[in-house]
Amino acid sequence: MAPAHAAPIPALQALLDALADRSDTTAAEVATVAGIGRSTASKLLATLATQGRVLRRPGGYQGGRRTPERWTLITTTAPDCTNASTARPATPAAEVDLPRPVAGRLGAGQLRDLVEACLAQRPNQARSAPAIAKTLDRSAGAVANALQALAGQGRVVQAHTNPRRYLIADASDPAAATD
């Protein structure tokens, strides 16, 4: 028997399918496409965000009015720094463990791997820690620390000093780097 707090699997699968077809969308938009309620979509998105399955881009203010949060599905492959992925989710809804207490916490070395994979997506483009952090929805300070560790290991090189921008070591010719 499923726990009372678990969402029905069809609603979760519909949400994942809708997110796979649309990137950078609001909870209301994905709820409409999935054919589920907005509050159900919001709760499922929050749970998926704590599991690291979706990226949450906080809303802001425009003309004195609050803008909605935007959501993008994360695939289990290397992050695509150029565009949010539109691939189908790698984990079916039945395998998603809904409530999880630890919010998006990465294991030892996983952030360095994500940062390196992000730089590898565009090997000739120097990227700053804040730009990578925004792509990965992680702390800019943590990404900067990961970049310094990767540079110390020779896996990335610092291409520019002000602001600090890095390249993957394979494309380490800073003269060839674009902004």
Short description:
With 179 residues, the chain is α+β, with helices and mostly antiparallel strands.
Question: What can you see in these coordinates?
Answer:
The protein has 179 residues and is α+β, with helices and mostly antiparallel strands. It has two domains: 9-95, Winged helix-like DNA-binding domain superfamily/Winged helix DNA-binding domain (Arc Repressor Mutant, subunit A), CATH 1.10.10; 110-176, Arc Repressor Mutant, subunit A. It is built from six helices and seven strands. The protein has helices spanning 9-21, 27-34, 38-50, 110-121, 129-136, 140-153; strands at residues 54-57, 61-62, 65-66, 70-73, 127-128, 156-161, 164-168. It has a three-stranded antiparallel β-sheet. Strands 1-4 form a two-stranded antiparallel sheet. Strands 2-3 form a two-stranded antiparallel sheet. Strand 6 (156-161) and strand 7 (164-168) form a beta hairpin. Helix 4 (110-121) packs across helix 5 and helix 4 (110-121) crosses helix 6. Residues 83-103 and 172-179 have low confidence and may be disordered.
Span between N and C termini? 54 Å
- Calculate Rg over CA atoms: 18 Å
Mean pLDDT across residues: 75
Q: In CATH, what is the class of the largest domain?
A: Mainly Alpha
